Amino acid sequence: MVSDANVRRIPRESLERHHPKGTAMRQEAPAVEIGLNAAIVAVLDNEPVVLVVREDGNGAQDSLPSGPFSPLKHRTFEGGLRTWVSDQTGIELGYVEQLYSFGDRGRHAQPDDEMPHVVSVGYLALTDAGQIEDSQRGSWRSWYHYFPWEDWRKGRPAILEAEIIPRLREWAERPQQTAEPARPIARQDRVRMCFAIDGAAWDEEKVLDRYELLYEAGLVEEARRDGREAALAWAPTPRLGAMMRFDHRRILATAIGRTRAKIKYRPVIFELMPPEFTLFELQRTVEAILGPHLHKQNFRRLVEGAGLVEPTGEMKTRTGGRPAKLYRFRKEVLLERPAPGVRVKPGRV
Amino acid sequence: MVSDANVRRIPRESLERHHPKGTAMRQEAPAVEIGLNAAIVAVLDNEPVVLVVREDGNGAQDSLPSGPFSPLKHRTFEGGLRTWVSDQTGIELGYVEQLYSFGDRGRHAQPDDEMPHVVSVGYLALTDAGQIEDSQRGSWRSWYHYFPWEDWRKGRPAILEAEIIPRLREWAERPQQTAEPARPIARQDRVRMCFAIDGAAWDEEKVLDRYELLYEAGLVEEARRDGREAALAWAPTPRLGAMMRFDHRRILATAIGRTRAKIKYRPVIFELMPPEFTLFELQRTVEAILGPHLHKQNFRRLVEGAGLVEPTGEMKTRTGGRPAKLYRFRKEVLLERPAPGVRVKPGRV
DNA sequence: CTACATATGCTCGCATTGAGCATTAAATGG
DNA sequence: CCATTTAATGCTCAATGCGAGCATATGTAG
Question: Is the pTM of this model over 0.70?
Answer without folding.
Answer: yes
